[in-house]
Amino acid sequence: MNFKVLKSDVNSSARTGILKTDHGEIQTPIFMPVGTHGAVKTVSPNELKTVKAQIILGNTYHLYLRPGIELINTAGGLHKFMNWNLPILTDSGGFQVFSLARLNKITNEGVEFQSHLDGSRHFLTPEKSMKIQQNLGADIIMAFDECPPSDADLSTINSAVNRTKIWIERCSQYLAANPSIYNWEQTMFPIVQGGIFPELRKQSAEDMIPFAKCGIAIGGLAVGEEKPAMFDTIEFMDSILPQDQPRYLMGVGTPSDLIQAVSRGVDMFDCVIPTRNARNGQFFTSFGKVNIRNEKYKFDFSPIDENCECEICINFTRAYIRHLFNIKEVLGLRLATIHNLHYYLNLMELMREHIQKGDFQKWSHQYLNNLNED
Amino acid sequence: MNFKVLKSDVNSSARTGILKTDHGEIQTPIFMPVGTHGAVKTVSPNELKTVKAQIILGNTYHLYLRPGIELINTAGGLHKFMNWNLPILTDSGGFQVFSLARLNKITNEGVEFQSHLDGSRHFLTPEKSMKIQQNLGADIIMAFDECPPSDADLSTINSAVNRTKIWIERCSQYLAANPSIYNWEQTMFPIVQGGIFPELRKQSAEDMIPFAKCGIAIGGLAVGEEKPAMFDTIEFMDSILPQDQPRYLMGVGTPSDLIQAVSRGVDMFDCVIPTRNARNGQFFTSFGKVNIRNEKYKFDFSPIDENCECEICINFTRAYIRHLFNIKEVLGLRLATIHNLHYYLNLMELMREHIQKGDFQKWSHQYLNNLNED
Fold first, then answer.
1. At what angle are helices B227-240 and B255-262 packed, to 10 degrees?
2. Torsion sign over Cα A113, A114, A117, A120
3. Which residues are A188's β-sheet partners?
4. d(CA A240, CA A237)
5. SS3 of residue A301 by DSSP
6. Are A341 and A57 in contact (CB under 8 A)?
7. Residue A100: what pLDDT?
8. Which end of chain A offers a freer environment for a tag, N or C, measured as fewer CB atoms within 10 Å?
9. pLDDT tens, position by position, A241-279
10. CA distance B154 to A143
């Protein structure tokens, strides 16, 4: 895998680049739709290509529980299992263990948890996370880190930074001793922790950079902290992370978050917002959100967004989509998901174009003004 | 609208034909997917075209309750509302009133019922059914009939036959006095009732034939009677219905039902079986049913049907689809629906080809033998 910066914006830290993987090239900055369980909820792999998804994310925790690693391994990896032949990134499983499962015990050895599905007991370690992700066959494997909540105090976050350092060493040792079982390259991204504390971020970055071969992640943000603190932290990270590797901001965010993070040097994103909000009837547009359940759209025969070129806006009206949500027709969930993913991926494409053109900052100010976001 | 028989089988009553409507031609025999509420559940209009649907059915009862006729009328009719530009047939609403709503009173005037959704009271008459269907804009409008249950005795069915006669006259008078509000032709199909009693079927056919301009329906079957009685009744209808009009057997059926009914002169079908069973994980194939939730498919990386050319069988494995059903991922419901509709519509195409070739009877015996249906 390799990464090349194509163009750096003169007025901000925004840049375009190409990340090459054995499953294809990724134009950055890029947004990665979340394919929780081996499917981006409601949509097919072909539809993901229609909305120009270049890479998707799979959740190790979910896939480990269902359908289990043996099945995906027997299928020839997650790409084959779900019929997605472009790049895949898998998370480490840690975040869901911390946020979704019943957490029993964290030690330097690993994390003991109970499944949110059936209460069954599991033990996840850095080695096991690497092994699972190798078996899933992801192009990009995420390091196993400890992600404390945003309201954790400095000493808790400090301890997470220290543990994350111990764990990255074990992740790295495991990967060195156990080469990929598939015939494509799998590259690990270490994850910088440290909450919103610059000194801890600096420490964690120094811990992680030696393990970053072609990409590094900013973890532990968008977990409840204030937006200004999040952007300050991203800006600080921008100043200390290597320029020649892609930076992946985990779990972020809204359209305005993406624009502001790109201007602070972020190259990759994932988030459930476009897909989850879609299933709640919330559509993203260049003029802000459309909550399609609203009564005012009952007789509205215009598309979700007049200026949008997605197949949903070409083919269906607000009145019809609202009706689908009213009758709980699952087709509605899909139409919303396709529109929102198109919106997100089109937004990334717009950013790439304007960085390339050299007017990213001017464009982004205008765009943010029109967004009218809460 | 007009209908032309293209080829009649010499060994059976099967025939091919073309039914021309203002929204396009329909090759018969044909199966009509059921689009309950302005959507064939889980699939998009484009996907319906991919599986070669030529006409779909809309349910007047459901559409009348949600989203209501005013909205669909304002949209410019059901075709426009749901973005389906091929022919649509709507039922009269009567069947759902009898089977789904709380029925309060049936008189010669009409049917008083309460919505299954909110208990609201409604009164449906032949005139109102015609008016609603005109507003929906269906190419084929179904007469308002009384459909008694299969266990009704002869005198109950006799009374339904008599009431259906009174009602067809009122339907016809309403349509004569109130021309279509859209710029396409809307043709009413009368519905023959009479249960499994030949004398009542004969009476009802005589009542209905004068009102059949370009199509007639066989109602009151597949409501619980034994299969031999159903086929005997279809055979009897074949002997007395006009040859030069399409015959629509309402609410039928399984793949083997379709083949046997086509051999008895039926041209059109609708049924929820392919779509409803799909959502329960039951796939139709040329060798019988595949219940994908079955444990034996867990590691089965073959397609649902090796010989099927639908996009689902080309792109996905049994193991993956089973996983989607296990995690309750709605993508699974859609993949199953697309496969089953493809199967049904491909089966109709096969029948048309073999009628055309002249070997329908030989082919159908072989096909039924391989089906292995319960």
1. 30
2. positive
3. A141
4. 5
5. coil
6. no
7. 87
8. C
9. 999 999 999 999 999 999 999 999 999 999 999 999 999
10. 75
Cβ-Cβ contacts under 8 Å, A325 against chain B = none
Q: How far is CA B311 from the centre of its chain?
A: 24
Bridge-based pairing of strands B111-114 and B121-124 is: antiparallel
The answer to whether residues A292 and A53 touch, using CB atoms and an 8 Å cutoff, is no
Q: Is A7 touching B (CB cutoff 8 A)? A: no
Annotation says B91 is catalytic: yes
Peptide bond into B29 cis (omega under 30): yes
Chain A residue numbers with beta carbons less than 8 Å from the beta carbon of B298 are 67, 71
Look up residue B94 and give its DSSP letter: H
Q: What are the CA-CA distances from residue B341 to residues B41, B273, B366 (Å)?
A: 11, 10, 22
Contacts of B324 in chain A (CB under 8 A): 39
Q: Which residue has the tokens 């073999």?
A: B354
Under 8 Å between Cβ of A83 and A74: no
Give the span between the Cα atoms of A220 and A222, in whole angstroms. 7
Write down the pLDDT at residue A296.
Answer: 98
- Cβ <8 Å between B74 and A320: no
Instruction: Write down the catalytic residue from A9, A91, A238, A305.
Output: A91
Instruction: List the structure tokens of A311.
Output: 């197949």
Residue with tokens 């059914």: B129
Helix/strand number for chain A, H first, E second: 15, 18
| Nearest-angstrom CA–CA distance, B131 and B135 | 6
Name the residue among A240, A193, A189 with its Cα closest to residue A212: A189
Place of tokens 């990759």: A268
Is the full-model pTM beyond 0.90? yes
> Do the Cβ atoms of B41 and A330 come within 8 Å?
yes
Of the partner residues A81, A299, A319, the one whose CB lies closest to the CB of residue B320: A81
Q: What is the pLDDT of residue A374?
A: 55
Q: Give A313 to chain B, closest Cα distance, Å.
A: 12
Q: Distance (Å) from the C-alpha of residue B46 to the closest C-alpha of chain A?
A: 10
Q: What is the ipTM of this complex?
A: 0.97
Give the model's confidence band at A151: pLDDT under 50 very low, under 70 low, under 90 confident, else very high.
confident
Residue written as tokens 């499944």?
A115
Burial A337-367 (b: 16+ CB within 10 A, else e): bbbbbbbbbbbbebbbebbeeeebbebbeeb
Catalytic residue among B139, B257, B270, B305: B270
- Tens of pLDDT, residues A275-320: 999 999 999 999 999 999 999 999 999 999 999 999 999 999 999 9
B257 catalytic? Reply is: no
Indicate which of B317, B327, B339 best probes the interface with A, i.e. most A CBs within 10 Å of its own CB. Answer: B327
Q: Hey, is the C-beta of A85 within 8 angstroms of any chain B C-beta?
A: no
HSE-up of B122 (CA within 13 Å, CB side)? 25
Q: Which residue of B has its CA nearest to A43?
A: B331
Tokens 């925790």, residue located? A61
Residue pointed to by tokens 């059915």: B57
- Nearest by CB: B39 against A39, A317, A324: A324
- How do residues B317-350 score in pLDDT, each as one tens digit? 999 999 999 999 999 999 999 999 999 999 999 9
- Residues B71 and B135: their CA atoms lie apart, in Å, by 10
Q: What percent of chain A has pLDDT over 70?
A: 99
Contacts (Cβ under 8 Å, ≥6 apart) of A356: A6, A7, A16
Give the whole-angstrom CA distance, residue B108 versus residue B61: 19
Domains of chain B in start order, with CATH, are 2-271 (3.20.20.105), 283-337 (no CATH)
- The alpha-carbon gap from A41 to the nearest alpha carbon of chain B, in Å, equals 7
Q: What six digits make up the tokens of B23?
A: 């929204």
d(CA B312, CA B105): 46
Segment B252-269 shows an average pLDDT of: 98
CB of A28 closer than 8 Å to CB of A12: no
